[in-house]
């Protein structure tokens, strides 16, 4: 008879699936690797694009890591954690999402080999933590200083970020991006502060990328409300109004009894008079353009048109804020408060038709702290990818200005730091040394992938890079994908912000450490089909594993 202590204790409800120990780790690692492999081939200037088709048949074509992962339907929790890595990288730096995800997947792939050698996960986690800290330190050590006035290097950063996405108009777009970022930058103490929201992106199809433009002011995606109003106003004095130019309805239920036509006429005259008073206040302020966040009554539109004032209604709150920053106007909550000092200035306010849509261009502001970038493209897919490229370039340029440090690209900094990490691993010793060396190997996945996309032999490339980086002159040597050889990346103007690497290292190592600590996956569901997982996956994994394994 079995002793009581040997009897299995059942504490989970029927239908719950549980995966423990090594199996749980293998599943998580397998999913993370699959996610990383899904975006790895997009890396670099010669990276390939992905086409994602959703259930409705809508198509997204991109080689932007964050966009691909956002559009993919990933159910597995480990896969979702990898998507979070890309999202964090995108939010914090604005570029390098593919790098971060590939780092995370490769760290787990290397950890799998260490687990097979019977090295405990906690030792791997400790080694990874030490390596991540040192790697960030080494990247900072080898970084070059950049100043806000170094427009040439900032442009090189923007071009590097866009290469492979909007390569056709990369140089022109990079010029616009650097101008936009420098325009909205504000000095606080001895640091330059940039708010990403102050650069407004508008995209319209129907013209080539070369026709994209920077407006030193704001583009509002609205039309001028009345046909009698001027379509172009020079030396615009702009009023921003946050209240409706309409007669307010009463807060409580009210009934007005009218017994004869004269009373009705008097009532209508009174309404008209109230609207006329509203318009008179705007006229008295000296404004010749009004942006209203709420509605404008038809009669008010008539009076404004007679006064020669152009008006735009139902402007978004974000556009009102941007207009205030660009034109130096103050938003008036009540019309009675609107005065001459509250008005903003722009050289011109013009209504234009762009790709069949009415838009209002507020241009020629004195020193705008909010600007608009109008991105053009021949088709919807082209303009979408160009917008993503511009977003990445803005993020990369802002990060470089914020940290004032840049690195050479093409995998040069990764090999340099990997060499330093291997030297550091020898000083640590023990089993942690193996984990630190695995971390160093992980960093080399970037030059290895670049070599693969350039048709070079990845193994020979890595060996040659290690050898070149062991000399003092080798710091900037990386993979030149266009010529299929090793070159000085600084001379080729391939530059990226320091924050791109340090953030990617932080996010990737943290997700790898978290997944390695998991040794038990409990998927609770009594609704799923018998003997399988929720969603019909009958192996001991998690929802979505059927898709991930085939990726």
TrEMBL record:
<dbReference type="InterPro" id="IPR002423">
    <property type="entry name" value="Cpn60/GroEL/TCP-1"/>
</dbReference>
<dbReference type="InterPro" id="IPR002194">
    <property type="entry name" value="Chaperonin_TCP-1_CS"/>
</dbReference>
<comment type="similarity">
    <text>Belongs to the TCP-1 chaperonin family.</text>
</comment>
<keyword id="KW-0067">ATP-binding</keyword>
<dbReference type="InterPro" id="IPR054827">
    <property type="entry name" value="thermosome_alpha"/>
</dbReference>
<dbReference type="InterPro" id="IPR027409">
    <property type="entry name" value="GroEL-like_apical_dom_sf"/>
</dbReference>
<dbReference type="InterPro" id="IPR027413">
    <property type="entry name" value="GROEL-like_equatorial_sf"/>
</dbReference>
<dbReference type="InterPro" id="IPR012714">
    <property type="entry name" value="Thermosome_arc"/>
</dbReference>
<dbReference type="Pfam" id="PF00118">
    <property type="entry name" value="Cpn60_TCP1"/>
</dbReference>
<dbReference type="InterPro" id="IPR017998">
    <property type="entry name" value="Chaperone_TCP-1"/>
</dbReference>
<dbReference type="InterPro" id="IPR053374">
    <property type="entry name" value="TCP-1_chaperonin"/>
</dbReference>
<dbReference type="GO" id="GO:0005524">
    <property type="term" value="F:ATP binding"/>
</dbReference>
<dbReference type="InterPro" id="IPR027410">
    <property type="entry name" value="TCP-1-like_intermed_sf"/>
</dbReference>
<protein>
    <submittedName>
        <fullName>TCP-1/cpn60 chaperonin family protein</fullName>
    </submittedName>
</protein>
<keyword id="KW-0547">Nucleotide-binding</keyword>
<feature type="region of interest" description="Disordered">
    <location>
        <begin position="526"/>
        <end position="551"/>
    </location>
</feature>
<dbReference type="GO" id="GO:0016887">
    <property type="term" value="F:ATP hydrolysis activity"/>
</dbReference>
<keyword id="KW-0143">Chaperone</keyword>
<feature type="compositionally biased region" description="Gly residues">
    <location>
        <begin position="529"/>
        <end position="551"/>
    </location>
</feature>
<dbReference type="GO" id="GO:0140662">
    <property type="term" value="F:ATP-dependent protein folding chaperone"/>
</dbReference>
<dbReference type="GO" id="GO:0051082">
    <property type="term" value="F:unfolded protein binding"/>
</dbReference>
């Amino acid at each position: 008879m079995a002793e009581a202590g040997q009897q299995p204790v059942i504490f989970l409800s029927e239908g719950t699936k549980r995966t423990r120990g090594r199996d749980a780790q293998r599943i998580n690692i397998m999913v993370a690797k699959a996610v990383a492999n899904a975006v790895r081939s997009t890396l670099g200037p010669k990276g390939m694009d992905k086409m994602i088709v959703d259930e409705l048949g809508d198509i997204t074509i991109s080689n932007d890591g964050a966009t691909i992962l956002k559009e993919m339907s990933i159910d597995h929790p480990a896969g979702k954690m990898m998507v979070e890595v890309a999202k964090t990288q995108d939010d914090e730096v604005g570029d390098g999402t593919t790098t971060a995800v590939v780092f995370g997947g490769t760290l787990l792939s290397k950890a799998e080999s260490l687990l097979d050698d019977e090295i405990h996960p906690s030792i791997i986690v400790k080694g990874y933590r030490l390596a991540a800290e040192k790697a960030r330190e080494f990247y900072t050590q080898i970084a070059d200083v950049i100043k806000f006035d170094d427009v040439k290097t900032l442009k090189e950063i923007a071009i590097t970020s866009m290469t492979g996405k909007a390569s056709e108009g990369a140089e022109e777009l990079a010029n616009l991006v650097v101008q936009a970022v420098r325009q909205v930058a504000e000095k606080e103490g001895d640091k330059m502060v940039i708010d990403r929201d102050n650069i407004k992106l508008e995209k319209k199809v129907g013209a080539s990328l070369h026709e994209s433009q920077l407006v030193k002011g704001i583009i509002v995606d609205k039309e001028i409300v009345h046909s009698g109003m001027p379509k172009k106003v020079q030396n615009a004095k702009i009023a921003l109004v946050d209240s409706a130019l309409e007669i307010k309805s009463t807060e409580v239920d009210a009934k007005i009894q009218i017994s004869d036509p004269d009373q009705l006429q008097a009532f209508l005259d009174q309404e008209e008079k109230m609207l006329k008073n509203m318009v008179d206040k705007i006229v008295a302020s000296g404004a010749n353009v009004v942006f209203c966040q709420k509605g404008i009554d038809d009669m008010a539109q008539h009076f404004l048109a007679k006064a020669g004032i152009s008006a735009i209604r139902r402007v978004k709150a974000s556009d009102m804020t941007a207009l205030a920053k660009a034109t130096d106007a103050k938003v008036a909550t009540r019309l009675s408060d609107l005065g001459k000092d509250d008005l903003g200035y722009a050289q011109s306010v013009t209504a234009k038709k762009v790709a069949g849509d009415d838009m209002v261009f507020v241009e020629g502001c004195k020193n705008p702290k909010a600007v608009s970038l109008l991105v053009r493209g021949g088709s919807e897919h082209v303009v979408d990818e160009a917008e993503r490229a511009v977003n990445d370039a803005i993020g990369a340029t802002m990060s470089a200005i914020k940290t004032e440090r840049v690195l050479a690209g093409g995998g040069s900094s990764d090999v340099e730091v990997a060499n330093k990490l291997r030297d550091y691993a020898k000083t640590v010793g023990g089993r942690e040394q193996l984990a630190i060396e695995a971390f160093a190997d992980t960093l080399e996945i970037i030059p290895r992938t670049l070599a693969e996309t350039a048709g070079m032999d990845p193994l020979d490339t890595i060996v040659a890079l290690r050898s070149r980086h062991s000399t003092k002159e080798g710091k900037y040597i990386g993979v030149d994908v266009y010529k299929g050889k090793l070159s000085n990346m600084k001379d080729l103007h391939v530059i990226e912000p320091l924050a791109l690497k340090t953030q990617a290292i932080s996010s990737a190592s943290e997700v790898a450490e978290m997944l390695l600590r998991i040794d038990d996956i409990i998927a609770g569901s009594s609704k799923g089909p018998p003997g399988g997982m929720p969603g019909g996956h009958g192996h001991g994994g998690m929802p979505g594993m059927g898709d991930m394994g085939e990726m």
